[in-house]
Amino acid sequence: MLEIGKKRSLIKYAAFAFLFVLLAFLFVFFNSGSNTQEIEKVNVTDCMGRNVAVPEEVDRVVSLNADATRILVSLGSGDKIVGVDSYSLKCPILKQAYPQLQNITDVGSDISGTLSMETLASLKPDVIFVGGSSKELAEKIQNELGIPCVCSYFYVKKVSDFLCAYEVIGNVMGQQERSQHIQGYIQSKIEGITNLSKDIPEEERPKVIMVGAALGNDPFKVATVSSAIDWAGGVNLGADTYKGGGPSKTVSIEQIAQWDPDMILVNGLSLIDITVIQNDPNWMQLRAVKEGKVYRIYQGMVGYDPAIFMVQPLNLAKIMHPDKYTFDFNTEADQVFEEIYGVRGLHSIFKAEFGISEV
Questions:
Q1: Residue 267's closest CA among 354, 166, 149, 163?
Q2: pLDDT value of position 16
Q3: CA torsion, points 149, 153, 155, 161, in degrees to nearest 10?
Q4: What is the DSSP letter of 62?
């Protein structure tokens, strides 16, 4: 009987051991299967025409482009950002509209040569957004780190160029509905300006220069990009110097005197003091200064801010053709900033901070 009992005990232990091994095997099998399971991906075509396979669900992104950062925030995807370029963190609009950004990891900047590939890799993003001018960087990151990179636009000549970034980023982030809404809103605002300005005769279009760069104090740095000025019914004299390259060029006081602009538009994000221009003997000879037509206006910092993309031409239209545009600029600007960033009162804050001229 003792021998039989021992045999039964051995069989019982063997059964338990077999069951334990089987359960352990199944646990390892199913868990290893879920870890190696292929992540569902979708193909997107970015603004540079590149076909990129991105995860169907994106939870972690890095933005190496300030424009992309602003678009992500406006789409309601700011909480998905785990790393940003240095210029995004310097943007005064984002500091007010989305202060949480200041707590996000700074990965450096390819423009200034401080981009850290090690930091990029450590953040384990699902997708990295890159500016269109950094197409080669996008390819390098994909090849070296295996992280899909999506490019925004290279430059903006038409409204559709800007909206391309909204379309692409909205698709990647699963924010198609919000993206379509903002695209329609932007088109409506710009068309509201251009539908009127297109009928303004050439002789009634003021000839202007736009001076200064964000956080700079050089009044001889003249904007060469004309979109907002054109839309608002003006003529950018500085565009005559544009031969490609950056959005501004440095010119001499002699060149400015030769142009003798009807109006001087000072970048509101610059450190230029309007009174310095108004009291400088060289500038005092200009028609714009004599007639008191020197204004601080809205302008973006590093690329295009989606709210300022609309607010700037609204600002210029009211300055250049106050008799034709009857809207209240302060009301319009407040509404645009709130629509894009979901924060009330931003225009009042920026108007005071940047010294935007009353119109």
A1: 354
A2: 56
A3: 180
A4: E
The structural domains of the chain, ordered by start, are 41-174 (3.40.50.1980), 195-354 (3.40.50.1980)
Q: Give the sheet arrangement for strand 105-106, strand by strand.
A: 105-106, 81-84, 61-63, 127-130, 149-151
**Average pLDDT, 10 consecutive residues per value, the chain (359 residues):** 50 55 51 55 94 96 96 97 95 94 94 90 97 92 96 87 95 97 97 95 96 90 90 91 65 96 95 93 96 94 90 97 96 97 95 93
Residue type, 72: L
| Cα angle, residue 265 at apex, residues 260 and 268 outer, rounded to 5° | 155
Distance CA 259, CA 257 (A): 5
The helix or strand, by DSSP H or E, that contains position 211, with its residue range, turns out to be strand 207-211
Instruction: List the structure tokens of 158.
Output: 């038409």
236/253 Cα distance (integer angstroms): 16
> Contact 161/201 with Cβ under 8 angstroms?
no
